[in-house]
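Q&A FORM
Asked by: J.P.
Topic: structure of DUF2325 domain-containing protein

PROVIDED:
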Amino acid sequence: MCDKHASNVPCPADGTQGSRRRRVWELSHACHCPLVGVGLPLGGLRKLVEKVTGGKVLHDDYDIHVGTVSECALRTPVADAVQKELERRYAQHVQRFRAAKSTEQVEAMWDAAVAAGDVAGAFWAGLSHPRCSTALEEKMCRDIHMVQHQAGACARADINKFNAVVADNARLERDVARLQERCNALGQEKAVECERLENQLRAARAATIARDGDVQALRAELARLQASVPDLDTRERLAERVAQMEAREQALRAQLAELKAARAPAPTPAPEAEAAPEPIQVAPVATPVRLENRSVLCVGGRSSSVPIYRNMIERVGAQFAHHDGGLEDSSSQLDASLAAADLVICQTGCISHSAYWRVKDHCKRHGKRCVFVDNPSVSSLVRGLQEAATEDTQPG
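REPLIED BY: S.T.
REPLY: Here is the structure written out as tokens.
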């Protein structure tokens, strides 16, 4: 269709013309179709035609292309407009091709432009060059024809690639949408979990603050109670001391009961009815324990009774020693006195708790005779000596 009016186009001379560049309408009509198709975009071509005609063109792109190619066969307003647009659009290419001074140089520049893929501007600059021969013009038309075929094939390949990319993009968008939905769900779950943990943290903090307040209140109450009871520590120590003394008293009472039970005389059997009456025998009085040249230690007792104790002991030939049970005498003296004594009389009611246990432990470990007297009196001391005498006279 682009060959319409081809018979009206004069054939150019073979490279013998001067230095003036050729106009669009001076080119071979075979050049007009690729020149308009490659050199002018469809949108720009439509605007150019509408500007020349002074109205909106209702034809489609193909009709505008064919009409423009036909108008370029002669010098028409459309051809003039196409000439000016090509000159404006490809002025740099035209300027670069001015360096070519022969047909061979123009051909070399055209081949370089084809290899570089920059054919639109080079096509117009080469065709309009004054050294473009008929053979070169034909070669350029064949080259641009093949370039267009290659461009179409590349365009189809690009379209296929584009369609594949569009499909992949749609798939990826669906995947992204699913992932986004999942992320939103996870975000909501995390938000709920964080809110729950924050509530627990606030509750724990509130409970801690409440406990701290209770602790402070209890400490204040304890301080108040301690302040209201003077000498509380001393009273506690005294209460502990009283408890120890009570325990000791119970132990001594139990020991005293055992001693009294041991001293109780055996019941006298009743005489038989047929037996003759016999004179009543008086039980002998227990003789004192032999204390000659022995050392007797008295632990405890009243200080006013110590001289009496000494007189009684020394009168039977024994040596008398006394320790107050820790009231004034030191505990180290008690250990030395216990080691030197042969008999120990412990006045349990007048010694310290520590001294009592030390006396008892020492006598038990060393097998030393010890008499415990619960009443610090002279009669109690006499009874203690009698108990020692009784134990000494019993058969081993």
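FOLLOW-UP: The chain has a mean pLDDT of 81.
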